[in-house]
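Q: Hi! First time asking for a complex rather than a single chain. Here are the components, and I think there are two in total. Is that enough to go on?
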Amino acid sequence: MDRRRIRVLLVEDEEIHRVVARAVLRGAGADVDEAENGAEAVRLVRERIGGGGGGAYDLILTDRQMPVMDGHEATRRIRAMGVATPIVAVSSDCLPSDVHAFTAAGADDFTPKPLTKEKLGHILAKFQLA
Amino acid sequence: MGYLDEQFCQIEDLQDETSPNFAEEVVSLFFKDSVRLVTNIEQAMEKYPEDFNRWDAHMQQLKGSCYSIGASKMNNECTLFRNNCGQENAEGCMRSFQKVKREHAILRQKLESYFQLLRQAGPAGTATRPAGK
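A: Yes, that's all I need. Here is the structure of the assembled complex.
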């Protein structure tokens, strides 16, 4: 039986980080949607759970600092929709206060940039997506 | 200390038949970004004297880009700049910014040479690391 590919939403405004993360995710067999800011991410999540997009994402990876809407606010709004999808912050802001701010917003985990195969492996194992 | 760390190897490992030039594409993106970010920092230092928070915010972005390709030496210089911002040391910032620009130029030269060599060597010349290392 074919394993269903995991559906990941990658939220990142910087192109270079998107390109690298996309390659790591696809290498792990994931289908990847991308949003360049938090507002776009919220819209995509809403679309998915609205029935038109094939169901919720299996995983959301989000940066913090983005134009229009940052990762903290996007995380809060996604959680306010009742979405339980694991949200992992992937950010270069790595102080304990940064990590705490993300978890307070509703994120499940935090990993420093850049996303690597090893870090993704840990994330997938932690949330039983491997 | 080397110019690039393990992250660069990870980038090369992401290359496959569908993306045979992935590493070079990522490096091109890095330099497209980093040239812009260095200019932003330069302009910020000129237009907003001793606005250390602003300078630091710009340098944080450049640091993030450095992480993406494993530009460790340049990253270290970026860190020193940020430390100088934290200490509100304008002269220190000026000095470390010159070092950031120098490392940026050196890295560009080295990577251009590297990819040129790879192109000359052709697909059969692609180096592979021994298994288990």
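A: The mean pLDDT of chain B is 91. Let me know if you'd like any chain examined more closely.
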